[in-house]
Amino acid sequence: MSGFEVVQVRYGERVTRKSAVLHEYSSYGEPDGDLQMDYNFWVLRGASKTMLLDTGYDIAERDWLGEQPVIPTADALALLGIDPLEVSTVVTSHFHYDHIGHLGLFRNAEVVAGAAEYDYWFGKWDRGELAGEFATAGHLEAVRLAEQEGRLRLVREETEVCPGVTVHPVGGHSPGELLTVVEARSGPLILAADAAHFYEQIEHEWPFFAFTDLGEMRRALSLINRLAAETGATVIPGHDGRVREKFPAVAGRAAEIATVLG
Ligand SMILES: [Zn+2]
């Protein structure tokens, strides 16, 4: 069997409203409604390596936006039979709190990040501008440790991280946001992370309310649709609870938290 097994792990959740998270939602003339917002990270298992896209965060320590914990990252990995020390690569979609918490668990992993993300957040840290931001010094310390140990790989352009996994720096939501394309067992998957939080954003190319560059965010949404059209890839929005309705749960003890995407 070729291609990666791709599993989405739901470590937290909350319910929000379309009008609360979609940029200028009222201008579309559409009814408001609830959105089930899942907080996820993704496991990519190949023949000889286990990779992660993002690493979750500790909701029990702090719920930034009313997130409800589902399972801590380490417990989820244990249920899936994954030793964090054996994870070879962690791709960070961006450095927001809900995507790079627990990064320090992966002491042996190469950490892949957007160069623009690194510059943006370490610039803020150096200038003492992290108060009230979407990342803390604690989060960034794990990135710095990877850098000091020679495990940090910054990407500036479309980059093949390894055969079957390509990242595209798109910015928009955060300056170095990465889109990840994986050759999964079932075919190509676009793991959008926060380049597209919800299916509506992909369908209509509607921006999310939180962005650093609105034009980049719009271009990222159209890139997602262009790549999907060109390659036949399936697009997985990063925070949409409806992903769990479209794909099967994993077999076994992790069924409650883990969904097989490909
Ligand atoms: Zn997020």
From TrEMBL:
Q: Which InterPro entries match?
A: MBL_superfamily_lactonases, Metallo-B-lactamas, RibonucZ/Hydroxyglut_hydro
Q: Which UniProt keywords apply?
A: Hydrolase, Metal-binding, Zinc
Cite the Pfam families for this sequence: Lactamase_B
Named cofactor requirement(s): Zn(2+)
What are the Metallo-beta-lactamase domain coordinates in residue numbering? 38-239
Q: Name one GO molecular function term.
A: metal ion binding
User: Which Gene3D superfamilies does the record cross-reference, listed alphabetically?
Assistant: Ribonuclease Z/Hydroxyacylglutathione hydrolase-like (3.60.15.10)
Similarity remark: Belongs to the metallo-beta-lactamase superfamily.
> What is the protein's given name?
N-acyl homoserine lactonase family protein
